[in-house]
Amino acid sequence: MVQGIVNWNTGETQEWLQQYVDDWVSFYRKHTNDGSVASYIPILQEADPNDLGITIIGKNGVSVRSGDTHRPFTLQSISKAITFIVACMERGVSYMLNRVDVEPTGEAFNSIMHLEMKPVKKPLNPFNNAGAITVTSSLPGETSAERLEPVFQLLERMLGYRPRLNVDVYESERDSSTRNRAIGYYLLEMDFLESDLDVTLETYFKQCSIDVTIDDLARLGMVLANDGMDPKTGGEIIPRQVARIAKVLMLTCGMYDASGKFATYVGIPAKSGVSGGILAAVPPRVRDETMPFTDGCGIGVYGPALGEKGNSIAGIRLLRHIATQWDLSIF
Amino acid sequence: MVQGIVNWNTGETQEWLQQYVDDWVSFYRKHTNDGSVASYIPILQEADPNDLGITIIGKNGVSVRSGDTHRPFTLQSISKAITFIVACMERGVSYMLNRVDVEPTGEAFNSIMHLEMKPVKKPLNPFNNAGAITVTSSLPGETSAERLEPVFQLLERMLGYRPRLNVDVYESERDSSTRNRAIGYYLLEMDFLESDLDVTLETYFKQCSIDVTIDDLARLGMVLANDGMDPKTGGEIIPRQVARIAKVLMLTCGMYDASGKFATYVGIPAKSGVSGGILAAVPPRVRDETMPFTDGCGIGVYGPALGEKGNSIAGIRLLRHIATQWDLSIF
Amino acid sequence: MVQGIVNWNTGETQEWLQQYVDDWVSFYRKHTNDGSVASYIPILQEADPNDLGITIIGKNGVSVRSGDTHRPFTLQSISKAITFIVACMERGVSYMLNRVDVEPTGEAFNSIMHLEMKPVKKPLNPFNNAGAITVTSSLPGETSAERLEPVFQLLERMLGYRPRLNVDVYESERDSSTRNRAIGYYLLEMDFLESDLDVTLETYFKQCSIDVTIDDLARLGMVLANDGMDPKTGGEIIPRQVARIAKVLMLTCGMYDASGKFATYVGIPAKSGVSGGILAAVPPRVRDETMPFTDGCGIGVYGPALGEKGNSIAGIRLLRHIATQWDLSIF
Amino acid sequence: MVQGIVNWNTGETQEWLQQYVDDWVSFYRKHTNDGSVASYIPILQEADPNDLGITIIGKNGVSVRSGDTHRPFTLQSISKAITFIVACMERGVSYMLNRVDVEPTGEAFNSIMHLEMKPVKKPLNPFNNAGAITVTSSLPGETSAERLEPVFQLLERMLGYRPRLNVDVYESERDSSTRNRAIGYYLLEMDFLESDLDVTLETYFKQCSIDVTIDDLARLGMVLANDGMDPKTGGEIIPRQVARIAKVLMLTCGMYDASGKFATYVGIPAKSGVSGGILAAVPPRVRDETMPFTDGCGIGVYGPALGEKGNSIAGIRLLRHIATQWDLSIF
């Protein structure tokens, strides 16, 4: 495992920072025993529950990597943040906010009952499955390939390479996702979908099945932390308003029905997936100048052992520890 | 329109009874203006909203027909009672009661949220869509044709002819029923279904699309009123226990979320469908001997203009009037 | 313990009937071990969980008593049926049905959420606590004593004596019933109550705390079975329409959220209370002439060990056995 | 109306800043017509619906005041933030977070059903009424006066004077708050309350009835923005951890069921009350140096005309405008 801190500009390593992070990863790796890998999508069960890895990339190019940093894993619900951003870029922010609300719900990610309980005019937010599928239905294009093209393009602009669809995960997901089909038909009934349900679900399952690494997530997080601008060139990758809204949603709804607790104990906009990944965006902050990453940073975490709410159990604890030590909270 | 009261045995007509029923049908036909035909299945909108007809068949063979007695219409939710009976006959009563509860819910027929709200182990009753689809999934056979064969056979034994599937209605239903697919996938997720969802739904849409007349419904009601025995021969068509449970469910859950009001104001086991049909079974009762049909009767009603709960608006009022006049309540 | 069957008119005993019932009570007494006495009102915990008793009174005066027939116990939820009847008599049926709906809910008796979940215009039925408290608020009179006076008078007309308020139970109930106060304030907020909440709740707790025996319940049941008429004199005690509606509600909502199962397996209008009492009304029926009580009967059961839904566990099983043996079902 | 920007240290005024804010207040004052004053507490209806005022106080002492700055109004739900802070200071953070969760709910502030719908072990957050009343029950002391003493003391330390209880509002609130009593009894039933309900509710209604001005709210907001430290002296008024959690809750749950939209469009931790007040805390941020208040600021708004979610309608729009102009978002 190749690790180390590199300054993108100078190439210098900062040994002390690396040492700390290595110690923390070692410590929290034991916490993976408190969780278990996702079982509702069969292929996800093949992950190694003891994996834990983190990448932190700062605006100034300083980065830290530790633990199992090279495992590829699929985006799963993290893709909800990406497709929401793409849909806002393709269709406009106000258009999208007319189609999906931005209120946290307190319900599980796969809840369907809140759609029936009150006379809602749109799904409650883009990060529960009902809202996310609605967002996916808004992507332009006929086929799932056409719809995902701008998603892949955006990812490529941020990552420097075009990530790949994990076909095995996609097929496993497609073949096991009865709840999402239930939600999909319910949305169709409510007239919330903008396109054919089958294509929408195919697109949705594919967006969930894009392979990434924690380096990738950290890069995405860095762009969001930087309000959508490329941290190196300063060029706009995501419009500032869209990047901001994405961070708001990550904070209020990003960690399933533990979002409130994550905001309270960690205080960073983040989005998790049941594959065990977490994408976090730490905006710049005015704090003790001796702290690392005061200019903002992106963080990618991978730890497939999940807690009861579906978030990486060791990943959350590791993030809480780091956020406390380095005072990363946005509040 | 040929009408009249015939005694199956003697052929005698009872003019006075006929006169009363004709008057009542004329009176309540005006009430069809207070409702409107079902719109959620497109083809049902083609029905004539002013239609109203009733057939009453007594155990002793006396029958009364009045109004629009010859219109064919599809069973729709009335089929839920039939398939529940068939499933009990094919799989056993205790088997079926383990798969679906028998509690009224207070929710709309197409509600899905009660499945999520509490940790239910089975759908709450066989007459809301979730329960009915579960029942249909329990019918033996591979194809929808095989599964419906015992349904058609039971109907044929009661009606004396084999009713036909209305293909136009079936196709309209199949193509428009997103809510039922949502419910179906939810049931699949809960592991409530015993067979392939597509076949189950195809079977379900077909059972809803069987063409009948009010004479047919009255005959079905007469058999149920007679505890499952053929009123002429005394032979068992439906086991007594099954016929009884069907009548209980018709009383407690048969008229959608107006079942309590129908029980209160009419007091007869009945099952309605959105096509405007109502199947009612009046058990024999100890009352004033001068009343007609004290030996029990079956009643079929057709009136496609529906009230807000999905029941024939004039049909319910006509039944209420007759039940009050002749004291048909089981209470 | 004095037992035996007496014919009110002739004084004859029917030994064989008595023998059967004694055997069944002995058998089902063991089932009391499957339940436990109510704990949410402290004083109810003092009941002997192994008690089981039944009284059946026929229209013709034949009666059977067996088991623990002399234990006094409080009406608890059985009083909901009585006050609903009294309110209908005092205020009129249509007035009351405008204030409280008659739909079963599928929810627990003390549920409050269904009031918030949908835009209901009235409590869903008079037998859950929300509806029952609303009914009690409709009783005329200033003080709880004035409000209960017609309740006591009606009971006295049916029982031949004026039952007493059990002050210890009333005080225990009043002091422990936080949930009912929550419901009461919610009803006040919804503007459903017709009178002062404190007086309403005092009245409600008192109506629940009236001491009766199973003989009393059997007499009440007999009057209801007889459509409100005194079985000896034929005089009207309760208007027929009111007696009928009470029986409908007992069947659809009388046994908490096990009402559907009770209707399915027993098929008799009945109302239970957490004290372990059950009041059942068996209307006359056309069945095998050799069966006892074909002219209808009232049944009182006492068995304080409750099942999970709050009904006497051995009492329900005993009633199911008897109803099956004697074919008492109204269906 | 005396207005102007004063630098607490130098006394200098910044005319241009004042001019902008005056213009914006004039503009948004017209928006008060889109809302209406709260009606559920009778005395609140006496407010002038066209009032609108704002005070902004920066860390460096610069302040801006505009509009109706001298109207006293009661804290109402804003007090939920204060008592949560006091309870954390008195009982400890982990103690309080064990008693009340920190998850947004998506439900109305006065919802009770979420307590019944799932097997919750604690109210979902301290800012809906169920959670807030639970928090109030945790305040130490026997009488409401004793319980409120640390609340008043904390307010006095931040405001420089001891605010007064508005007895008229308290009495109006106490006499009209049936829903809060329903919630209170429900909490009692769930065993969530730590002290006598009557004292708890008395305390709760009193904390809602403390009179403040927008200057007061701005000072409170400034202390929270400054992580609990006195902006002048640097001394700790509120422990940093507690101030942080308060800001998290303000962002995720502070604006009733429009909290998600406020976070999305404004992006500032804020707490509103039905009196029309809004308390906002803007942490320091790294942004364009030419923007005002980059060191953080506290904001107090008053505008009693409310939108459908219970927040000051013009106040929210004014805050959105200012936050956009000066880039105050924490994201």
TrEMBL record, chains A, B, C, D:
A single GO molecular function term of this UniProt record: glutaminase activity
Keyword Acetylation: yes
SUPFAM superfamilies associated with the record: beta-lactamase/transpeptidase-like
Class in the EC hierarchy, top level: hydrolase
UniProt superkingdom: Bacteria
Catalytic activity entry: L-glutamine + H2O = L-glutamate + NH4(+)
Pfam families reported in the protein's UniProt record: Glutaminase
InterPro entries for this protein: Beta-lactam/transpept-like, Glutaminase
EC nos: 3.5.1.2
Keyword list, A-Z: Acetylation, Hydrolase
Binding site for substrate: S77, N129, E173, N180, Y204, Y256, V274
Family membership noted in the UniProt record: Belongs to the glutaminase family.
NCBIfam families: Gln_ase, PRK12357.1
Subunit (UniProt): Homotetramer.
Name this protein carries in UniProt: Glutaminase
Organism: Lentibacillus salinarum
